[in-house]
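Order emerges. As here.
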Amino acid sequence: MGLLLSAAAVRAGQLAPLAPPPNWAHLEPYQRTITRKEFTRLIDQVYSPDKSFWLFSQIDDDKVIIFSDIAHTTPPLFTLSFAKSESNCAPLPVHYKTQATSTDPAQPLKGLRIALDPGHIGGNWAQLEARYFKLGDDPSVEEAKLNLITCEALADRLQADGATIIWAKHDYTPVTDKRPESLLDAAVAWMKQLHLKPNDRAAHDRAALLFYRVAEIRARAEKVNPQHPDLTICVHYNADDWGNPDHPTLTEHSRLVIFLNGAYEKSELAYDDFKFDMLRKLLDRDAALEERGCALVGQEMLDTLKYPPETYTGYFARHLTDVPSVYARDLLANRLYHGPVIYCEGPYMNARDAYYRIIAGDYLGQRTIQSQRVPSIYREYAASVERGVLKYFGVK
């Protein structure tokens, strides 16, 4: 979303497309649960490494005041009072389980709730999402299908470990009841907000974007959050630019990356809903949990799948932890899901070192693909995530 928004076009009090007005009263239970030192550390190191958050706030030893605009011309949105010291911090209103307590060695994750979010919609919507291509007579590659196959394999493993699985989506039907044609007015309003001329073609393109990239993810979060998972795992496959989907280009090498929520940019924080969501993530203390979970899962994926880590530069993503594939980045999914979120980007769908394994489909055992005996890439991906999750919950 950050790449689609423009701070210059935002007026004070404005919301991102389809975002509900924030209920700032929901943050009141977090009063005096954090010190100024820790709040500042999290802002500077995780959530706003470009320091743009401070443009929208005033801080002293006792409190931080949040404003809609840089000039602070409107009434404050919210005031957070700080604890005087770590020993004086009030208890957090929400807790997420981070330690397995099962006494059953066969089901070490019993009593834990894990949400799985297979990215994208797929099916009849795959081509609209631009997550689909077909190379000659080969089977088509549809990311939503790859994500769901991997999540089903992961769910089987986690359920065998005793975890209760919460599905954000478990088929190729949109979770949202909105459709592109119902979002045309919102698309036109969005374009006017960004000072873009709302011609018919552009409005339809924006409406489609709102459908699959915004409304769908918001609907999944609304479905999952009331079920209070201890951990949410978003599963995706990455891709390089494949050009014309009718004549796609294969790149040579895959890379792996894992995202935790963070690295909000000035253009995003100009919107009040972004400020609210960021503060909720920060005050829930998701950062430490996500850093640990992403590092454990990220290392397992690097060790198992044996693709190199992705590299990013610039403030839109910030490398964190000692694991080279772990970055903070603000994505709608890892922002809207409550509690710790591990956002996995698997191998490139259109890289030669993964493509032939992907089109081979799911299978048991091993097959010879490009002169190598290899297991199903979907099961290998799922197994690496499971191992990281077990370590996250303290299971050796």
The radius of gyration is 21 Å. The chain has a mean pLDDT of 95. The chain has two domains: 20-88, 113-170+219-392.
